[in-house]
Amino acid sequence: MWENVVYTKAQAKYKFQQIEAEPENCAPRQVKPPFDQLREHIMNEKKSFLVNDKMKINSYAFDLHMGLVLYSLLNDSYSFNERLAAQDEIWRYLSLEVFPDLVYERFGINDQRFYKGTRRIWLKSIWWYIHLSWQGTEEETLNALGDNSSDHILQLLDRSGSGGYRAELTRELMRQYKLYSSSKVPELFRRILKLNTARLNMIEPSLVEGGIKTYVDDLYKYFMNDV
Asked: Exposed, middle or buried: residue 161 (CB in 10 Å: 0-12, 13-18, 19+)?
């Protein structure tokens, strides 16, 4: 299935220009299976969210909700994984052929969010945000992330480190951030990520006595003296 989803940057640019010319009519007339079912589920979730929660589509709450839904659907029903999630070709296809109207509603005519920005493609960013923050269940993940903002998504994704994303580590970072976020430390999340990036050049978290949990706890405690 996924091996047939090859959408080059040139193809994406051409498709985006078509959308740009007439954005109000960018909803796809027909979506090829099996992505037609994915679209149906996601668009139903969008309607449900906006009606039941009376929320705006241009909000972090919407990103979080749709991220959780997209993550669960792709992983459970479409054999999705990190290897596939790293391929921009797939996200370009989903953005421009399956959900162009949804991306447009969320961000307007923004080529970075449709296909151009490697870490800014919206569907890709919300999938990775959930993946890197996953707490074992949707409920626990929602609880951990519910008080965050869109800026947390950008900051987390922008600091992959020289070795790429480390899901076990970032999940612990997000778990403990929930515990410490009410502290008075200014810009705590940004400072934690910056310190973590620096320390990873010298320390392997899994080799710290107490493992990753202790390593992350030490990161947060480093800033508690600022309170």
From this structure: middle
